[in-house]
Amino acid sequence: MQLETFQLIDRIVELNLDAKTIVVEAYVPPASHSVFAGHFPGYPIMPGVLLTEAMAQSSGWLILGLTKFERMPFLAMVKEAKMRGFVSPGSTLTIDAKIEHEGSGFTVTSAKVRVGKELKCNAELTFRHIPFPNPDLRVHMDAMANRIGFPQQAMSNG
Amino acid sequence: MSSTFEQIANIIAETCDIPRDTIKPESHAIDDLGIDSLDFLDIAFAIDKAFGIKMPLEKWTQEVNDGKATTEQYFVLQNLADRIDELVAAKNAGAGSAS
After folding, report:
1. Is A140 considered catalytic here?
2. Superfamily name and number for A3-147
3. What is the full per-residue pLDDT of chain A (158 aa) written as tens digits?
4. Residue of A70, A79, A104 to mutate, testing the B interface (most B Cβ within 10 Å of its Cβ)
5. Which of A106, A127, A154, B51 has a Cα-to-Cα distance from A20 of 20 to 30 A?
6. Where is each Carrier domain found (chain B) (predicted)?
7. Where are the domains of chain A?
8. Which residues, other chains included, contact B71 with Cβ-Cβ below 8 Å and sequence gap of 6+?
9. How do the domains of chain B map onto residue ranges?
10. What is the ipTM of this complex?
């Protein structure tokens, strides 16, 4: 995770555009990171809003794949977000997301965050998506996709 | 089986916490019921699921923006019910010809 730039996903493990699912990994920073200075002193745990954002970014990569990077998803709604257990510094998050519904201009996903086999949180997320508003954002997302190992061949097969 | 309007009205009442008896066939979802675009996403999700369709919201919005349609055609609830019936009929016709 690069919290300073809000890039929470580190690696795409598996993208299945036929099943409309994605699995990613995210590496929680060590206890020395400033985010834990206030959350909480002497008892560092990952903020739930960042776990929710990680689920949103995971879903976002799935939607980008399904729209072949022609549309940019923006988080619009979070439902039933449940923080089921504390997430400690240095943890590896495994995040699964799947499509629940593809509407006209919007997509609903469900996502789960696990550490090992333990379910830490889950939510249902709704995104609006629109054609990329400018070329710069598309270039940025392409670079991000390369950084986290987005499997471009999955789209040519899909 | 309840009418399409009844189903839509129930979805709106539940999704937006609007008293069911205030939702009429002649109600305009935006102007009369005060439903905003985010709530309408939720309603669209529920309607798509309930009727097994994909309401073409982007196409409708474009038509309104281009002056080719009025919001009343899509957002007055009886009209919305008629559009949904058309979408369901088109889906069923497509399924019939494919089998």
Report:
1. no
2. Hotdog Thioesterase (3.10.129.10)
3. 998 899 999 999 999 999 999 999 999 999 999 999 999 999 999 999 999 999 999 999 999 999 999 999 999 999 999 999 999 999 999 999 999 999 999 999 999 999 999 999 999 999 999 999 999 999 999 999 999 999 887 777 65
4. A104
5. B51
6. 2-88
7. 3-147
8. B28, B30, B31, B64
9. 4-98
10. 0.86
